[in-house]
């Protein structure tokens, strides 16, 4: 772009991944944008005990403003952001989302742009479809565009049908500086590992794809990481280790013979929504075993760069047949693919293309 943008970003948290699966997406995109000359201020509420569970200190590639999780705190942050060239409101901030969704539009000027950046489009779309009175219906046409971290054509069509001026996916990706191959760690030794927080529309699929598979393979070892599973009944060959800080993600991905990714039900339904974990695991050269969803071949080639299962029984069959040599080959192929096409540097370049196209018809 001709000059770096001053970007104000309202999201859940940049510095803490605690109950905040979008953290690594934010970090990857924002760090890559900074490296291309853009200046980013990330506004996050002091909520959900995230500041007590930080993964990183304030980075040198973004200014972090933590505001009180109060209405006054929100308005203070909005006032500080009003001079930005681009103001982005992410979905799922967690507190005062409806207020922010409406109030950022009041910051619109002829010489700036305001965008909605949806990091969970299926949830947002399902939410408003269930409530015709949801004020976000009225807000959507006011944004210069909607950016999403997934969803492909189904989400693009859904948003444009609901009044969006434009909807463009900027997918999850890999930051090779943070997620990469490391030596195996005995703490995470297992035949199959799964990392994910316990969420209502994920739990049933975890039962089916992970816990049921473990129950049918009593001689295989399984490891589960993430928040909220402590009181969940599990087979005896599943070891639960609780919250896993991002500093341990590489070792987790590099140690188990295979790493399972399970989309939440809404993500699987819309398709074209690879979670951050897919790219993190591939970036660590892990052998990734993924539940089936439409569009996966857009990112990784089934049977060569990723293994795909349609149910827990297929997970078990794949695991029984998976040799260390084949697991290694799949992991290496996935690493080559994501480094060549799916890094956050690729996504930042796409973001600049999107902004340049938009600026041709108005705005910055």
The number of distinct helices, counting runs of at least 4 residues, comes to 13
N-to-C CA distance = 11 Å
Overall tally of structural domains: 2
Spell the H/E element sequence: EHEEHEHEHHEHEEHEEHEHHEEHHH
> What Rg do the Cα atoms give?
20 Å
Just give the CATH class of the largest domain. Answer: Alpha Beta
Assign the CATH topology of the largest domain: Rossmann fold
What structural class results from the helix and strand content?
alpha/beta
User: Which CATH architecture of the largest domain?
Assistant: 3-Layer(aba) Sandwich
* Largest sheet composition: 7 strands, parallel
Query: Which band does the percent of strand residues land in?
Result: 15-25%
Brief description of this entry?
With 364 residues, the chain is of the alpha/beta class.
Q: Describe it for me?
A:
This protein has 364 residues and is α/β, with parallel strands linked by helices. It folds into 2 domains: 6-173 and 343-359, Glycogen Phosphorylase B (Rossmann fold); 186-341, Rossmann fold. Helices cover 37% and strands 16% of the residues. It has helices spanning 23-35, 71-81, 97-103, 121-129, 136-139, 152-161, 200-216, 249-255, 265-270, 276-283, 312-321, 324-341, 344-359, and strands at 6-10, 39-46, 63-68, 86-90, 113-118, 145-148, 167-169, 192-195, 222-225, 238-240, 258-261, 288-291, 307-309.
């Amino acid at each position: 772009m001709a000059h770096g943008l001053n970007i104000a970003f309202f999201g859940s948290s940049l510095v803490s991944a605690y109950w905040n699966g979008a953290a690594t997406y934010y970090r990857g995109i924002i760090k890559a944008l900074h490296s291309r000359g853009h200046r980013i201020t990330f506004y996050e509420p002091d909520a959900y005990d995230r500041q007590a569970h930080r993964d990183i200190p304030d980075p040198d590639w973004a200014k972090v403003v933590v505001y009180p999780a109060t209405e006054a705190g929100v308005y203070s942050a909005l006032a500080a952001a009003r001079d930005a060239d681009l103001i982005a409101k992410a979905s799922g901030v967690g507190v005062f989302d409806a207020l922010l969704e409406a109030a950022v539009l009041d910051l619109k000027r002829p010489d700036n742009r305001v965008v909605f950046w949806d990091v969970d489009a299926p949830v947002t779309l399902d939410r408003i479809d269930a409530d015709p009175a949801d004020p976000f219906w009225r807000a959507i046409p006011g944004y210069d565009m909607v950016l999403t971290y997934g969803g492909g054509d189904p989400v693009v069509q859904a948003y444009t049908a609901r009044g969006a001026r434009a909807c463009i996916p900027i997918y999850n990706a890999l930051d090779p500086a943070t997620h990469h191959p490391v030596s195996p760690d005995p703490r995470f030794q297992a035949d199959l590992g799964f990392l994910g927080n316990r969420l209502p529309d994920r739990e049933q699929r975890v039962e089916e794809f992970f816990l049921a598979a473990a129950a049918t393979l009593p001689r295989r070892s399984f490891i589960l990481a993430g928040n909220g599973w402590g009181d969940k009944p599990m087979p005896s060959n599943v070891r639960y280790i609780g919250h896993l800080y991002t500093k341990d993600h590489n070792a987790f991905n590099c140690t188990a013979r295979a790493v399972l990714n399970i989309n939440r039900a809404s993500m699987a339904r819309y398709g074209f929504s690879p979670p951050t974990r897919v790219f993190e695991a591939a970036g660590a050269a892990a052998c990734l075993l993924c539940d089936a969803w439409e569009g996966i071949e857009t990112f990784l080639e089934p049977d060569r760069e990723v293994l795909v299962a349609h149910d827990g029984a297929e997970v078990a069959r794949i695991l029984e047949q998976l040799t260390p040599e084949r697991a290694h080959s799949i992991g290496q192929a996935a690493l080559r693919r994501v480094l060549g096409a799916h890094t956050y540097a690729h996504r930042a370049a796409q973001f600049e293309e999107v902004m340049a196209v938009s600026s041709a018809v108005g705005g910055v």
